[in-house]
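pls read this stuff:
=====
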Amino acid sequence: MSRSDRSTRAMHQALPPALREAVDDFAEHLSRVRNRSTHTVRAYVTDLVSLFDHAVRMGCVDLAELDLSVLRSWLARQRTTGAARTSLARRAASARAFSAWAHRAGLLSADVGAALASPRAHRELPSVLRADQAAALVDGPTRRITPTDPPPTDLPDTHGAPTNPARTGPAGEAAVPLRDRVLLELLYATGVRVSEACGLDVGDVDHGRRVIRVFGKGGRERSVPYGVPAQRALDDWLRQGRPAMVGAHSGDALLLGARGGRLNPTIARQIVGAYAEAAGLPRTSPHGLRHSAATHLLEGGADLRAVQELLGHSSLASTQIYTHVSVERLRAAYRQAHPRA
């Protein structure tokens, strides 16, 4: 448990019983009803515990006493302690979500958070690779570009399985580049999140139609197509690579770690970063490949709505940032090439 988690837990235990119970009930609602991830629920709980700790210091010991002035005071205090605009926007969203739920549940007589404003988070344009750079990264395992600092193999897989003996032999060692190749191909070909890629099962791959079934945020299911290079990588991995790394704890997981369990997203990030460094590319993450895939799709003429569906964005506004990326790249090319720029 991190220091931040220990601090949140201590503040949670110090809250009055009614407030502590409200936090726990809201967390259960997010997890069971809204199907939010453990990480998301933890973020909401952290924000709410901070809010209620501030409310208690203001003399608010009962949930019915929570009002807009308390919410605004809490955000103002966060601002004075140096919280970033993105953090303030997220915390305000947490307060509004809780207030709306508490009102529906009859715990608050009014939705006091509905009128809570928050600073608009500054959205930086994502860093993307050029098409040739993305190709160099994805082709790394095939072209024997070996990372100079390979990812550690002693981190636990998702299931914490013991080391797979097959992984230590020649067949297991030869399987690793095949695993790395299919990971890189899928991340760039489909634009899926790293957690979505690591969560894929063998049965989620439709080889005939060349699509994968992905379960995204909130458990939302979508189908995402992939191309011929990714299909070749999948064929090689399933025929030669996965059988050499499979173990008792592999289950139906498509991508496997060194211990035979489902590939850990942390290891997947290290794999991408290591191959990017080995290829002499800018620092790159799986999310950078997602950004690159979306940008290249739009630059190639894909419809914005189609890209939204592929990425699994619930709002078109999240996808529209990639149109700005394309425009900025167009402007840069214009300034460089046009004599009257």
